[in-house]
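For practice. Supply one:
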Amino acid sequence: MKTKVTTEKDSPIVVGLDIGTTKICVTVGRRSSNNKIEILGVGKAESSGVSRGVVANIQKTVNSIVQAVEEAGAQSNVDIKVVNVGIAGQHIKSIQHRGILTRKDDSEISRLDIERLIEDMYKLVLPPGEEIIHVLPQEFTIDNEPGIKDPIGMAGRRMEANFHIISGHVSAIKNIKKCIDNATLEVQDLILEPLASSEAVLDEADKDAGVVLVDIGGGTTDVAIFHEGIIRHTAVIPLGGNIVTEDIKQGCAVLRNQAELLKIRFGSALADENKENEVICVPGLRGREPKEISVKNLAYIIQARMEEIIEHVYYEIKSSGYENKLIGGIVITGGGAQLKHLVQLVEYITGIDCRVGFPNEHLAKNEVLPKNVYDELKSPLYATGIGLLIKGIQAEEEQEEMHQKNGSPMSVREITEKGNKEKGFFKWFRDIIKDGNEIDDETYLGKK
């Protein structure tokens, strides 16, 4: 059995699992001594069982997950058992809701009060077949004092909060969990992919100024809008890089793998940036004559579909109400962000400044991974995988800090096991509240 690697600080080792439409990626890492993310191992496999971000074939998806996990485990020398999983797909929805909690007295507000307020949001009645994935607090109002971002430590009797609630289809969530179970793994947390990507390519200054994250994947394009450091809007558009490949396949009458190579090597989002006389020679099928394809015509095909995707993104920006508050502009990431001249096309259609988001600023210098693997990780293609890792590390550190601060002799992992290995600490906590049981601070902190 492989042993886990530890640091001087004994920083927890966390695993991210990105189940994408084109690839399944596993990242293993921990917090380094200079507060960056040290990647210990990476594994990837072709994703043949996922369509537009949703599992369409359980067994094929399981095989790809196992392959990617084995590769990452061998590279990192870590026995991978628990993973932080990304979720996306057209079924993802988001709503705004307001919650109120009246406390018994006006003593200091604790983390427990916020958790109780969050728990109320999980009791919302949703349409049949939908389940809440995330409840994200935005702004708090304490005794009619609005605009409070972190109320812990404040005195107050009446707590109100605006929440951004993200939900998805129960069947899609269950299928992901079934794939994880069949791969003999456990789900530590289920994380919306645009939230994960935002951790990898945005900093606090971006989120505070107002920014739109656009993650262009193989099957979906994920959108997340931040303003004043708070998430304001999320959406998943069921169009991505794969549909561009299909367009090239149909428009140029070539094989799918040839269409993918044409897109990657010669593709452009702006036809006018290409010369009329540039021609690509594509080998013919079974001894037939090679086919000549104009680079400009190829760009016209790509531009038409990318304009459609960007129009959908722009519609989400306008419907959010934050179109004129985006000082940080648009940040595009994901595999689709590597398309040439895409930044110019986005700026032309939306009139908003745009740049490509790379996850490299969070990565520590690495002497463990081969140089070519480490350099590849800096690509926008790995934004979600690295973001899942960052979210997992943050969750571990926040919980460890909370329990150490309150003198708890138990570690987060011990508390999680005490609650339920399958559900994790916060879901165990939610179950107690839902069952109508009382819970005091000492029980919450793991002292009982």
Observations:
- Confidence is low (pLDDT under 50) at residues 1-9, 408-425, 441-448.
